[in-house]
Amino acid sequence: MNSTTQQAVAVLGSTGSIGVSTLDVIARHPDSYRAWALAANTSVEAMRDQCLTHQPEYAVMMCPDAAEQLRAVLPAELGTTVLQGEEGLHKIATDPAVDAVMAAVVGAAGLPSTLAAARAGKRVLLANKESLVMAGHLLMEAVRDSGALLLPIDSEHNAIFQCLPVDRAGRPGRAGVSKVLLTASGGPFRTWTPAQMAAATPEQACAHPNWDMGRKISVDSATLMNKGLELIEACWLFDLPAPQVEVVVHPQSIVHSMVQYDDGSVLAQLGNPDMRTPIAYGLAWPQRIDAGVAPLDLISQGRLDFEAPDEGRFPCLRLARESVMAGGTAAAICNAANEVAVAAFLDGHVGFGDIPAIIERTLADTPVVEPDSLAVVESADAQARACAALLVENRNS
Ligand SMILES: NC(=O)c1ccc[n+]([C@@H]2O[C@H](COP(=O)([O-])OP(=O)(O)OC[C@H]3O[C@@H](n4cnc5c(N)ncnc54)[C@H](OP(=O)(O)O)[C@@H]3O)[C@@H](O)[C@H]2O)c1
């Protein structure tokens, strides 16, 4: 093992879908990468197994009880120190020994550690799109000020990143770009009627046709809020106004997104729907490494279809677009209301059709202010959560 060229990676959200795929890619390249620290919320058993396999310096459990349980089951000779809570996450996101941080905590909970990694000037592999949606201004400012490298892991943004022009220093630019085309699978309800969607169960919403993902993002894909959050993410990442980000439904999820140029050219990135491709790209950029992904066979794929999104059946896409255009804390409010509504749907407290209604009402009832600091964003998030929780309660009573 050549420890001088080995990159130390902190995997935040290691027990989740993106975290597991990240550890798979890291394990394929032991000379180049090491899982230096892992973090999760409550999944003690999965974390124990990951620690035994990857032998990290640190394992962080957000929940203090889970941290206690992990300390009890990890053999002392492993040498892994168990930390807990936001302090633990901050430590591994910013430690001088860490080269790259995989930001793959789900939801708003990922914001403080993602921001901390950016402020510490790390190579930030951004899966946690909610960070940019809530605090795009603060995160992009942190990246600029610290010289951090922000690499998008969402497959669509990773595709756009790959298709953008680069300047002489290899940095992505926007010269000659007329718009970006964000592809969407359309989710499991793409062809469902409004009546069928109104009666949809959490299991049906989580049964994504092409991607195997965590439950929250799976529901977001079913409502198209995931595409709405990605539209906001694209505006921040690539410094584009919302009208220059067009959503195109592409049911096969083979074209991961495209960039359209002024001269009529459209560049696309294609591949099998497997998150290990963008993860490997983020880890190795500007190099390319094996991701363990099967090569794309276009002949057996046969056809690629494209259609317009139906914002009548999927109002979440419109709500997200309106909130990024409104500016201020509107997108953070939209994100918080969505998290509350999706959790209530997954717990069986509200129906699928209630999700956009709760978001729209929360957006109307929560004041929008300038997102000057993390505290302001967190306060808007808390107000929106309280408003959305009340709406959930009222629907239950
Ligand atoms: N899955 C995909 O294909 C995909 C694609 C693009 C982008 N993303 C984005 O990547 C992020 C992760 O998605 P996922 O599908 O991997 O989610 P997931 O499978 O639900 O995993 C979430 C991870 O976050 C941890 N976590 C949850 N709450 C936490 C908290 N308060 N503090 C610290 N850790 C916490 C979980 O730990 P426990 O196991 O202990 O709960 C788990 O490790 C999301 O922002 C999502 O939008 C995912």
Automatic annotation (TrEMBL):
<feature type="binding site">
    <location>
        <position position="154"/>
    </location>
    <ligand>
        <name>Mn(2+)</name>
    </ligand>
</feature>
<feature type="binding site">
    <location>
        <position position="230"/>
    </location>
    <ligand>
        <name>1-deoxy-D-xylulose 5-phosphate</name>
    </ligand>
</feature>
<keyword id="KW-0479">Metal-binding</keyword>
<feature type="binding site">
    <location>
        <position position="15"/>
    </location>
    <ligand>
        <name>NADPH</name>
    </ligand>
</feature>
<dbReference type="Pfam" id="PF13288">
    <property type="entry name" value="DXPR_C"/>
</dbReference>
<keyword id="KW-0560">Oxidoreductase</keyword>
<comment type="function">
    <text>Catalyzes the NADPH-dependent rearrangement and reduction of 1-deoxy-D-xylulose-5-phosphate (DXP) to 2-C-methyl-D-erythritol 4-phosphate (MEP).</text>
</comment>
<feature type="binding site">
    <location>
        <position position="128"/>
    </location>
    <ligand>
        <name>NADPH</name>
    </ligand>
</feature>
<protein>
    <recommendedName>
        <fullName>1-deoxy-D-xylulose 5-phosphate reductoisomerase</fullName>
        <ecNumber>1.1.1.267</ecNumber>
    </recommendedName>
</protein>
<dbReference type="GO" id="GO:0016853">
    <property type="term" value="F:isomerase activity"/>
</dbReference>
<feature type="binding site">
    <location>
        <position position="185"/>
    </location>
    <ligand>
        <name>1-deoxy-D-xylulose 5-phosphate</name>
    </ligand>
</feature>
<keyword id="KW-0414">Isoprene biosynthesis</keyword>
<feature type="domain" description="1-deoxy-D-xylulose 5-phosphate reductoisomerase C-terminal">
    <location>
        <begin position="150"/>
        <end position="238"/>
    </location>
</feature>
<feature type="binding site">
    <location>
        <position position="221"/>
    </location>
    <ligand>
        <name>1-deoxy-D-xylulose 5-phosphate</name>
    </ligand>
</feature>
<feature type="binding site">
    <location>
        <position position="156"/>
    </location>
    <ligand>
        <name>Mn(2+)</name>
    </ligand>
</feature>
<dbReference type="Pfam" id="PF02670">
    <property type="entry name" value="DXP_reductoisom"/>
</dbReference>
<dbReference type="InterPro" id="IPR036291">
    <property type="entry name" value="NAD(P)-bd_dom_sf"/>
</dbReference>
<dbReference type="GO" id="GO:0070402">
    <property type="term" value="F:NADPH binding"/>
</dbReference>
<feature type="binding site">
    <location>
        <position position="214"/>
    </location>
    <ligand>
        <name>NADPH</name>
    </ligand>
</feature>
<feature type="binding site">
    <location>
        <position position="208"/>
    </location>
    <ligand>
        <name>1-deoxy-D-xylulose 5-phosphate</name>
    </ligand>
</feature>
<keyword id="KW-0413">Isomerase</keyword>
<dbReference type="GO" id="GO:0051484">
    <property type="term" value="P:isopentenyl diphosphate biosynthetic process, methylerythritol 4-phosphate pathway involved in terpenoid biosynthetic process"/>
</dbReference>
<keyword id="KW-0521">NADP</keyword>
<keyword id="KW-0464">Manganese</keyword>
<feature type="domain" description="DXP reductoisomerase C-terminal">
    <location>
        <begin position="270"/>
        <end position="386"/>
    </location>
</feature>
<feature type="binding site">
    <location>
        <position position="230"/>
    </location>
    <ligand>
        <name>Mn(2+)</name>
    </ligand>
</feature>
<feature type="binding site">
    <location>
        <position position="227"/>
    </location>
    <ligand>
        <name>1-deoxy-D-xylulose 5-phosphate</name>
    </ligand>
</feature>
<feature type="binding site">
    <location>
        <position position="18"/>
    </location>
    <ligand>
        <name>NADPH</name>
    </ligand>
</feature>
<dbReference type="InterPro" id="IPR013512">
    <property type="entry name" value="DXP_reductoisomerase_N"/>
</dbReference>
<dbReference type="InterPro" id="IPR003821">
    <property type="entry name" value="DXP_reductoisomerase"/>
</dbReference>
<feature type="domain" description="1-deoxy-D-xylulose 5-phosphate reductoisomerase N-terminal">
    <location>
        <begin position="9"/>
        <end position="136"/>
    </location>
</feature>
<dbReference type="Pfam" id="PF08436">
    <property type="entry name" value="DXP_redisom_C"/>
</dbReference>
<dbReference type="GO" id="GO:0030604">
    <property type="term" value="F:1-deoxy-D-xylulose-5-phosphate reductoisomerase activity"/>
</dbReference>
<dbReference type="InterPro" id="IPR026877">
    <property type="entry name" value="DXPR_C"/>
</dbReference>
<feature type="binding site">
    <location>
        <position position="155"/>
    </location>
    <ligand>
        <name>1-deoxy-D-xylulose 5-phosphate</name>
    </ligand>
</feature>
<feature type="binding site">
    <location>
        <position position="156"/>
    </location>
    <ligand>
        <name>1-deoxy-D-xylulose 5-phosphate</name>
    </ligand>
</feature>
<comment type="similarity">
    <text>Belongs to the DXR family.</text>
</comment>
<dbReference type="InterPro" id="IPR036169">
    <property type="entry name" value="DXPR_C_sf"/>
</dbReference>
<feature type="binding site">
    <location>
        <position position="17"/>
    </location>
    <ligand>
        <name>NADPH</name>
    </ligand>
</feature>
<feature type="binding site">
    <location>
        <position position="226"/>
    </location>
    <ligand>
        <name>1-deoxy-D-xylulose 5-phosphate</name>
    </ligand>
</feature>
<comment type="pathway">
    <text>Isoprenoid biosynthesis; isopentenyl diphosphate biosynthesis via DXP pathway; isopentenyl diphosphate from 1-deoxy-D-xylulose 5-phosphate: step 1/6.</text>
</comment>
<dbReference type="InterPro" id="IPR013644">
    <property type="entry name" value="DXP_reductoisomerase_C"/>
</dbReference>
